[in-house]
Amino acid sequence: MKLTVESRNPQSFEDLLAGRCGSAVSLEAELLLPQPQAPRGGDPPPAVIVAPGSGGLGRSHRMHAQRLVEAGIAACVVDPFSGRGVAETISDQKRLSFAASTYDVLAAARMLRAAETLPAGTVDATRVGAIGYSRGGIAVLLAASSQLAQAVLGEGGALKAVYGAWPWCGYQFQNALTAPTAVRFAVAEIDDWVAPVQAWAGAMRATNPKVSLRLFRDCRHGFGYDDAVAHLPQAVKAFNAPIVYLNDTGVFLDWYSGEPLHGADDTFWEHTAARWLERGVTVGAEAGQYEMFIADMVGFFSAELSG
Known about the structure:
The protein has helices at residues 13-17, 59-70, 98-113, 135-143, 146-153, 198-205, 266-272, 289-304, and strands spanning 2-8, 24-32, 47-51, 74-78, 128-133, 161-165, 171-173, 182-188, 211-216, 230-237, 244-246, 278-283. It is of the alpha/beta class. The protein has an 8-stranded mixed β-sheet with strand order 1-2-4-3-5-6-8-9, sandwiched between helices. Strand 8 (182-188), helix 6 (198-205) and strand 9 (211-216) form a beta-alpha-beta unit. Helix 3 (98-113) crosses helix 4. The longest helix is centred in the middle third of the chain and has 16 residues, at 98-113.
């Protein structure tokens, strides 16, 4: 089923939370539905939003969506780039703000829940989750943040479950509030694109017991894709840069003083992080890693969206 996600283009999280969400943009999406005989009786199935990473929508995302469908879960695959005239952000992450990527996830959730969007009973609006990869990983994790979920979806509108696959975690809310959303981090042990994320998971657990982290042994960035190991020389990264924290109004906090930096955005932080910027990463899967990822991902959503 072809759908349209009506999203926006906020330049920063500060703008998003202040209601300055930028220009409107229509994104293409596809909703894959389980067959009626899929497990869950006659009830509408839950749904999972699929948010691609910096390389854009690819074959593996559709393969993951199909595996969810086989488990009785609808999958809404969103193309965040084509509607904006963007091919990829691997070589330049500033082509699309991280706030806009997060808004895309929340806009897709709003679309799936809207009575006028889908025929009644197509999906269960109370059981909507999201999976994101790398750039998309931080988008779904931030979409689980109470500050942003409430701003876009309203009180009580939190996503049911999110799965961050090899997520970049350079932006985090100082108050890591994600309850009642179930959160899963899928972390690659030898990832050379994004830094370890245990600290963010630990901060979330302080107020949300439904936060879990799986460290995948001997795995690289993108190990859950059905792609051979490859080197991406153009990929930009800031592997050792400090985490950038946001206050509850989405304002970035200065690394050194902790003072709010009103008006700071992705461009500001890339300039500030210049001393840590490098290019070149290794991505892809070795034998058995794809299926290991699928088992963990499908198992998580089957458990957390079951009722």
